[in-house]
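<goal> How does this chain fold?
<sample>
Here is the protein in question

***
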Amino acid sequence: MKIQVITLFPKMFPAVLETSMLLKAKDLGIVEYSYIDLREFGQGPRKQVDDTPYGGGDGMLLKPEPLFAAVERAKSNDKDATVYLMTPVGERLKQKTVRSIAKEKTGMIIICAHYEGYDERITSLVDRQISIGDYVLTGGEIPAMVLVDSVVRLLPGVLGGETSAEIESFSDDQTLEFPQYTRPEEFRDMKVPGVLLSGHHAEIEKWRDTHSKKADN
């Protein structure tokens, strides 16, 4: 899977996307990361990428010309890739969304908006608008990292175990993962629940089901 990120801050990404399981995915050839610097497509001698909004108001908006050019560059690398825009007004990212993206097996082009927003005309380029929550960040870089992390770990061969991703929190979009314990059996007077030491699989499953927490909708 080719993952191309359009951003004003490409140096933010390698520290996250080229670490741990995300690096493993890259090293195995499961994914290919690349970063397109929006500033390269800026206009004039100052490489301007933003301007004041029509109608007045505070802040600056990303201009359409640089964004169109950047997406077109990305499409020239992967014409069938899906274009995502990270924005607070997008659909809420949920595990079922992540699973569907991972199963599509098409490339991803992720636009990281910045400043006060973007010229609305860029949405004509976008296949899907994604929000990671009901709050506002300084830019779309961290949300883009969240999206990539959540998708890449579900690609075959990344986690290792075939069922690792199936038994996690939100795997059915209704429950969080049950409490888990490892050795030692007792630590600072805190003991592992006896049922987990019993070897009685039916009782263990019953305990896990009882102690799984319901997720907020």
